[in-house]
């Protein structure tokens, strides 16, 4: 069988690194426990395999912006795997499978900065010349403009509702109006649009796997979009580059919820229309609350220590959302990548079987809203069509990992916005990339253009100063450097 080829963005650190560790650990074993079904859903097809496919090797691609950090992380990953294999050997386990896996493992590094359109396109096109196909893409890299803690907003809610306050960090002050060198909203480009372009440029590679002869329809290519428990509708659609909001992080994650849900909806619609399995599926994942580098620039070492203690405390109080350790948090990625696709609940088909393990019961949310001035959603009307879901890393009180589901909030209200966003991103992607071939590495020869189940875009929008399309909320053009 073919090699398994997985790309993970932001793989040198935090949750991305944890997910890579977990992938190595799981794929080096015949028994991939993370692939076990996590949800009690009626399986659509009776022939869902119990055993994982036997790949002939793994190519793990670490997509990072800093080569030095990436090289160091690659070294750590290889030593981590070697230690695992040694431990198995010391236990007297004859591990031919693991030895074989190690021999056939290749860890590659690709340089990419998501705040630069050129860097993203050149990286993806470089990958298209190097790899024949890509099984899965984990869009994990992300950043936040966290600057400080608003202690007034933290202390009282923390005393009254510790679990909620340790889960939803609405007391963090964030920078406003930060821009990338391309002239876009920095957090928006880094967390949402950069990953979108990356996916679109890699779409031919993801689809190429589907056209291979040994493809197993239980394991279609998957794009994992990393969101957050905190993903909320903080943004106003007119501030879609998130340069006016003081919650650009949460808003960027909510945009990810909307865009990924819309892409998945389109993939499923096409599946139904053509009666053929979708070539690429889109899955939303979140790591829960993990202790990583994302808030490093505003935390002193003592605060990081206290935060880690607080995460244990939240878990002790019953929170499932505090995996803390990035390696545990990585289970959301490993489960959704390694399990047969039929084991992932599909809201359109399994809504009645899902129990939402959310913290947002209406009462609690109203309370939180009052305490922190955060505008929260109301609980959905049970008569509404089931919203899309995201898969999150959870633990029990002892830190044993598992996967839970949450719904995408306010889907009914924001579904039209999700369509508008995909259309806007697609128009922008084309106006920046396809219409300016001279600015990028040429598309490799023999490559094919976006396939039939690419994003369904009703009408391509053209650059137009009149209708504001392509303008940021302050009215300046977004294409500085690309006109
Ligand atoms: N930690 C949590 O509790 C939590 C909760 C919910 C969601 N998440 C999400 O999980 C993902 C991983 O975050 P983390 O917590 O693991 O944070 P992290 O430790 O800071 O890791 C972020 C990764 O993204 C990379 N990155 C940042 N900006 C980039 C850019 N412009 N171009 C390319 N790579 C870039 C970083 O590279 P460098 O090392 O070079 O900076 C790093 O590898 C993010 O999408 C985050 O929003 C985290």
UniProtKB/TrEMBL annotation:
It comes from the Eukaryota. This is Uncharacterized protein.
